[in-house]
Amino acid sequence: MTMATALEASWAMIDEIAGPDSIDAAKARALMVGYDARWKDAGYATISTEEEFRLPIVNPASGRSSQLFQQGGKFDGIIERDGRHFLLEHKTAGEEIRDRSSPYWRRLAIDSQVSMYVLANWQAERKLDGTIYDVIRKPATNPVNLAPGKMKAKAVTLEQSFGTIREMKEFGSYYGVKQDERVIWDVLEQLDRGSKPRESAFMYQCRLISVIGSDLNKYYQRQMVPRLDHEILEFANELWQVAKDINEARKHQRWYRNSDACMSWNTPCEYLGICSDHDSVDSEKWDRADSVHPELGLEDRGADLITNSRVKCFQTCRRKHFYRYEIGLKKRDQEDRHALWFGSLMHEALRTWFDCFRKE
Question: Cα separation of 195 and 20, whole Å?
């Protein structure tokens, strides 16, 4: 496929998931326009996307595989350039990503997900040349109200009048993109009446494309994250120990609570009501999940599969791990946090984009 077709394919996926007229779709489409402009000439070919794995957990000291647990997960992608193969990991972030010495990038240097995925490729006899962290910064701006006082312009060219009443009146466009005449007239009539109409999803998208395009480095960064052999061996030992710790907790029912984890990301833990005796596992608010790893296409429940998310959950709060991964407790009618949902939307758009560059 051509580069343009890859962008169009990603837009089609966004519209399918989020609906063509939603604000989330507008933001995702704008981000993909910038992404395509930033990376379309990077020269990578796609080997695979969203590849799932399920492998033994091996004791590095003895070479013995665990009889209870396996490790599993899903690679965002494996890409190739000049005969070298790289693990690809997508992330969306809200903070500054241009500074390579920032805490954001320093944390990725020891990120356990990279270690687990490189180890999995190693066990599958596929030695990678590195991991590319592909980070997209989410725009902080949301749709705005269109106010007359903020939209006047003395400029005479289209570019100089972006986002103003003058642009809409004289050019019938908004940030250089032609708009539906009915939308323009509706906006102008509301402004004449003293109202402050809000940007439509399409107008918001046009403004975002302009803002993002003016500084691509602010919104798109990639960095190679290496893993040396001794670091992978160290992680393999840690993974073996985590599996032993989960087994010990399971045998003795030692699921300790960590009250410092009750408000991670300024959001109450979904199990806080149960832990504080304001709810119970048997109430009508809860179901038992068919799979404790809904992100993976498992044919079984996955209770003995250890993923990176499960490791982090166990290390954060053993009681939360018990509810989520041991008994598969899931809240009925619970909606995903918006940040997580938008991250998933971008993942699907990026997967579609990369699939257009499959190596033949």
Answer: 26
Strands 305-306 and 220-225 come out as unpaired
Chain Cα centroid distance, residue 28: 12
End-to-end alpha-carbon separation of the chain, Å?
A: 11
Task: Report d(CA 254, CA 198) in Å as an integer.
Answer: 54
Helix (H) / strand (E) containing 78: strand 65-81
Residue 310 near residue 73, CB atoms below 8 Å? no
Find out whether 255 and 249 touch, Cβ atoms under 8 Å.
Answer: yes
What tokens appear for 239 in the block?
A: 């993974």
Neighbours of 169 (CB within 10 A): 11
Indicate the pTM of the whole model.
0.88
- Total residues found in the chain within this entry: 360
pLDDT tens-digit map of 225-246? 888 899 999 999 999 999 999 9
pLDDT tens digits, one per residue of 25-48: 999 999 999 999 999 999 999 999
3-state SS record for 90-126: EEEECCCCCCCCCHHHHHHCCCHHHHHHHHHHHHCCC
Taking the C-alpha atoms of residue 224 and residue 79, their distance in angstroms, rounded to an integer, is: 13
